[in-house]
From TrEMBL:
This is Dihydrofolate reductase family protein. Residues 3-187 form the Bacterial bifunctional deaminase-reductase C-terminal domain. The lineage of its organism: Bacteria, Bacillati, Actinomycetota, Actinomycetes, Micromonosporales.
């Protein structure tokens, strides 16, 4: 059986919306897009690089897959993240996407997110990594399908925006596996689901 790891960039007040660019995700009139890049540093790059090197296949919700396909789906000279993502098998969970031809090595998982991902998790193959895709992560978390989290907790609050855990969810316990502070105050915390 595969494991599922989720990597989420978030603020102290739990906002995960619009990390990278002002126009990345303006749903609900979100005015704070692009809050994340000023916190990037060598420590974050190294830690994310180590995680990407261990990642197997990638798992996305439709919106994040479409955004990543536009940003990362073309070869970016010298960028190791682009090369890894383009090479990896990418599963996109969607009930509306007709095909995944827009990004090489992409496969659409049609139907209910929890059911299709649970079935994929039961198959043999590389472990699965989710980057972003907050709605998908919430659904998978609610079904107990997320095995571990890497949370990049940024030292700011936004007061508005989509939060990682907006709705009530099940009681879930995790163990802190590691924590690394960056030079710009981001805490990279890795949690693994605790054994019942």
């Amino acid at each position: 059986m595969r494991t599922i790891s989720a990597t989420m960039f978030m603020t102290l007040d739990g906002v995960v919306q619009g990390l990278g660019r002002p126009d990345e995700d303006t749903r609900g009139g979100f005015p704070h897009g692009g809050w994340g890049p000023r916190y990037n540093d060598e420590v974050m790059g190294r830690e994310l690089g180590q995680g990407m090197a261990q990642a197997g296949d990638l798992l996305f919700g439709r919106r994040t897959w479409q955004d990543f396909a536009n940003v990362w789906g073309r070869a970016i000279d010298g960028n190791p993240f682009s090369a890894l993502m383009n090479k990896a098998t990418k599963y996109v969970v969607s009930t509306t996407l007709n095909d995944a031809d827009g990004w090489e090595n992409s496969i659409v998982l049609r139907g209910d997110a929890v059911e299709t991902v649970a079935a994929l998790k039961r198959t043999e193959g590389p472990d699965l990594a989710v980057n972003g895709s907050a709605a998908l992560v919430r659904s998978l978390h609610g079904a107990g399908l997320i095995d571990d989290y890497t949370l990049l907790i940024h030292p700011l609050t936004l007061g508005a925006g989509t939060r990682l855990f907006e709705q009530p969810g099940p009681l879930s316990e995790f163990e802190l596996i590691s924590s690394v502070p960056t030079t710009k105050g981001v805490l990279i915390a890795r949690y693994q689901r605790a054994e019942p």
